[in-house]
Amino acid sequence: MARTRLYRGGSLVREDFPVHDISECLADPDSVVWLDLHQPGREVLDRVGQAFGIHELALEDAGKEGQRPKIDRYHAHEFLSAYGVAMDERSGELVTSELAVFVTPQALITVRKDDGIDMGDVLARWDDAPELTAQGVGFLLHGLLDHLVDGYFVAVQQLDDNIEGLEDLLFSEGPRVVRDVQRRAYELRKSLVGFRRVVLPMREVINTLMRPTLHVVTEPLMPYYQDVYDHVLRATEWTESLRDLVGSVMETNLAVQANRMNEIMKQVTSWAAIIAVPTAITGFYGQNLPYPGFDDHVGLLTSSALIVVITVLLFFAFKRQDWL
Where are the membrane-spanning stretches (predicted)? Predict the structure, then answer.
């Protein structure tokens, strides 16, 4: 599947035209083309590479999954690898969508490896800023990067909300609370690690794009790219603070478990001391030797009274010490 757009003189003139017409469109130096490929095969990538003069190493990276977010500079183009992110509403896990981008002087080629990136929102961003379309490929690339970075903010906000819910659960009572806290803390930590791998390299990617030697970002577009760069920095700092917060939650959870264990041990020890009193008294009076009250109901009354009085005294003494 492929989608196309043609801009000429700063205006959108054609959309969803056949891919084989791109060479004819690029004959005009004022033309800028966007080509979007969805899960293309190796043969399709090779044909695109021949048509646009794309380096074979860049084509190889575009065809493989699991690339690190980066920007590589070649003689006739730049290759950019980036990710879109989203939070799965049912599982609460982080979902990433890989995107490869070829940037040439007259074309922006996007290679999507799944359906996770909403290109409709990217098109809406382009259409909402017609005054910037004259800036060429740099304008198209800005709309794409802006969409990805905005997705970072949505995902990190959801992660923040999940961590707040975990903090509320941390001091709740219940037999399964400890297990739920441990499981959710591990899942959140795992999502944050994956999110950090996506966000951190984007700082260098956008910073490289803004270099004048690259000739991608024109002077009118510089404030817009600076805004995207600022958003990436904020998302990165937010991610780092959330990672520290999850670590604090896990440490607090261990401390809470230790405190609960101490409380349980105090209670068990207190009840063991209380139970030891009747055991000792009945054991004493169970000796097969004469003693005061031996073979008489007075001995039974005396032992029973001692059990009740000492047990009650121990109970209130432990209660006063908050051991029960």
Answer: 268-286, 298-318
